Amino acid sequence: MIYKTIAAISTPLGPGGIGIIRISGPGAYAILKRLFVRKRHSSKRANSDIFAGHFSSHLVYYGYVIESDTRNIIDEVLAIYMKGPKSFTREDVVEIHSHSGFVVLDRILSAVVDAGANLSGPGEFTKRAFLNGRIDITQAEAIIDLINAPCETAAQMASCQVAGGVREAVNNIIGTVTALQAKCEAFIEFSEAGENERDLFDVQGAVRKSVLPKLSSLIQRQKETAIFREGILLAIAGAPNVGKSSLLNKLVERETAIVSEFPGTTRDVVREYISINGVPVVVCDTAGIHDTKDPVECIGIAKARDQINRSDIVLVVLEATRSINRFEEKLIAETLNKKTTVVINKDDIADDCAISEIEKRLKTIRHIRVSAKLGTGIAELKDLIFKELVSGQNIVNGESVTPNLRQRKILEKAKQEIQRFNFAVETEQSLEFMSGMLNNVLQILEEISGNRNKEDLYNHIFDQFCIGK
């Protein structure tokens, strides 16, 4: 398949050591020969007699990139030519490695475009890799996940899928269903009437023992690993001046929120990212909840309540120096439907009577004593948060086959169709009808790897990439 030649800056813009211009398409080699000269002269202008020359594939060349009309040197660079199909896109690909900086990269890209390339769109290089058979759609999605991975575990999972983990698992199921459908077709064509029932129950048994468990396993893995891809929201809530901002600073291990002895310092939601045992967590410090007529504080409290409602985990912070007030009691009651932990802060100056009363009133509600000022109890609090994150889940190895949400929904559709097939067997539907149901399962599963042409789906996936990838 022949496309136009495309080019883009493939590295983030801004000052840095190295920037990369990527070119792909039938004109990539000609553009390289036109714009690149090997370092043979110290002159600021390149002589025409050194334009010509052969570039071997997958070797690094040292020299200059120049403006083709003026022959002025733009930058000292490394150039790599990768002859198709031995490249990411399976086309001729050129990479120019220059010094990073917006002006330098923009000048090189402009020279490449002037030499005949077109500016690429988002994800166009990866889309070509897919359309040329270099990767399937599951691997393209995994590349997005790898780029956007919020933690090491998510990156490991994405790397496994880039290598084709999901594709191989789904192809294994497709192979089994294809064989079972072939049996159904054979029964229709060749079996005697009395043999159909026994043979069909053999197929149903294979579906129950092999296909359904594999589908269920993949679906469950996506659910169990979603927290590593998507992360969770954790809200720190409580009355003013109980140490919420100090607790945030200790959790993220840096001074990110303003801490003051005056109540009401935090009026907006402050969000910070941390990783707890490999799970990405967005910690949200909220305004103190109390009775006030100050319009600005009222806005902050409304935002705090909204954040609490949207969070997966809530830390309700109390003071170890006094008893619980009515706002705190109400807040605890309102958040019991979530994964809530009561954090009794300021344990370094705790009042024994107050602690005794607090613990009596909390009874079976999960709670922990900490000192955000001294840092005591923070490690234990993080362990408690992690246990809450993974409660009821089996944490899989990062190298396991883990579908994404789109793929899980397709697997669920296939599972429903398999369950309908089982019902059809039990209610003695026709063999032709049941063979058609297995064919439906195959068509559904092929949506995962992109074997069925769905242009809207492809556009949606590749539009998520940045330009240059």
What does this protein structure show overall?
The chain has 15 helices and 13 strands. The protein is an alpha/beta fold. Strand 11, helix 10 and strand 12 form a beta-alpha-beta unit. The protein is flat.
Q: What is the structure about, briefly put?
A:
By secondary structure, the protein is α/β, with parallel strands linked by helices.
Task: Report the principal-axis shape.
Answer: flat
CATH homolog superfamily of the largest domain: P-loop containing nucleotide triphosphate hydrolases
Unreliable spans: 47-52
Share in helix: 40-55%
First-to-last CA distance: 19 Å
Structural class: alpha/beta
Helix tally equals 15
Give the count of structural domains.
3
Number of strands: 13
Largest sheet: 7 strands, mixed
Strand order of the largest sheet: 3-4-5-6-2-1-7
Reported by name, the CATH topology of the largest domain is Rossmann fold
Rg? 30 Å
Notable traits:
single chain, 469 residues, alpha/beta, Gyrase A, domain 2, Four Helix Bundle (Hemerythrin (Met), subunit A), Rossmann fold, 3 domains, 7-stranded mixed β-sheet, 17% strand, flat
Q: What topology does this entry show?
A:
Elements: E1 6-9, E2 16-24, H1 28-35, E3 36-38, E4 60-66, E5 73-82, E6 93-100, H2 102-114, E7 118-119, H3 124-131, H4 137-148, H5 152-162, H6 165-190, H7 196-230, E8 232-238, H8 244-252, E9 270-276, E10 279-285, H9 295-310, E11 313-319, H10 326-334, E12 339-345, H11 352-362, E13 367-369, H12 378-390, H13 405-426, H14 431-449, H15 455-462
